[in-house]
């Protein structure tokens, strides 16, 4: 498991005495660099884990995950002991929101474990019909140019990175593979079945395309709250928004009465 931990978790700011761990899930095509740096912005009561998926960074040589179940199983098996020993919260952006939801659902169904708070960003509720268009993108037949255009519209990728052929190739590959994983994920919410009891907070960029957020209400008996921050899909990379997110997440975790 230690090896698994080394591969999966990036935690540059270790806080042995933290009251809670915030586990951060990356966006499609994303790595760990931005969210791992959040560790230094939080107080000592919160330790930040940024998750590194196969096929990127130090896991470049590993094959990409083929489906959401593979990712969920790896994250759960590596982190189970950590998640059992101390309270945890999840933060996911975009593709990361769906991943964090899938992991939370698995933890709840199989181990009766639940995050004290689920923070989702730039994502539809997982049972929403709004997800269907993404699920029907013919990912193998979509040209690189079209994917590149889409990545540029979303933002969050520096133009320098796109100038470098090798980096650009790898970003395109990673993005395709992450979308492919998202297409294998499905969640049908049964009538009257409320999977969670934790609070859920949804963040969104004001200029991003609207996401179906209301449907997150149906997934928990806890409170659901919604915040719109200035900017596009990658609003969270703006320093002022980052400060807001850190403060807000801290307040929610500290108010959870740990």
Automatic annotation (TrEMBL):
EC code(s) of this entry: 3.1.2.14
Limits of the Thioesterase domain: 21-249
Pfam families: Thioesterase
Highest taxon of the lineage: Eukaryota
A GO molecular-function annotation: fatty acyl-[ACP] hydrolase activity
GO biological process, one term: medium-chain fatty acid biosynthetic process
UniProt protein name: S-acyl fatty acid synthase thioesterase, medium chain
Organism: Corythaeola cristata
């Amino acid at each position: 498991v230690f090896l698994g931990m080394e591969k999966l978790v990036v935690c540059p700011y270790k806080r042995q005495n933290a009251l809670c761990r915030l586990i951060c899930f990356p966006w499609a095509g994303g790595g760990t660099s931005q969210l791992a740096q959040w560790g230094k912005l939080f107080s000592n009561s919160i330790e930040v884990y940024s998750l590194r998926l196969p096929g990127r960074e130090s896991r470049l040589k590993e094959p990409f995950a083929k489906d959401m179940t593979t990712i969920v199983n790896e994250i759960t098996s590596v982190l189970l002991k950590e998640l059992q020993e101390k309270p945890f919260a999840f933060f996911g952006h975009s593709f990361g929101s769906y991943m964090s939801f899938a992991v939370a659902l698995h933890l709840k169904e199989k181990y009766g474990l639940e995050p004290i708070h689920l923070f989702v960003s730039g994502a539809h509720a997982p049972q929403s019909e709004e997800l269907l268009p993404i699920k029907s993108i013919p990912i193998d037949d979509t040209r690189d140019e079209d994917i590149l255009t889409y990545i540029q519209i979303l933002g969050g990728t520096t133009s320098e990175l796109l100038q470098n052929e090798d980096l650009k190739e790898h970003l395109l590959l990673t993005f395709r593979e992450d979308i492919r994983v998202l297409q294998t994920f499905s969640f049908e919410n049964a009538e009257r079945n409320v999977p969670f009891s934790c609070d859920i907070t949804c963040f969104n960029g004001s200029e991003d395309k609207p996401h179906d957020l209301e449907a997150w209400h149906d997934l928990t008996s806890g409170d659901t709250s919604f915040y719109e921050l200035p900017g596009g899909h990658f609003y969270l990379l703006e320093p002022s928004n980052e400060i807001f997110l850190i403060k807000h997440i801290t307040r929610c975790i500290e108010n959870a009465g740990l």
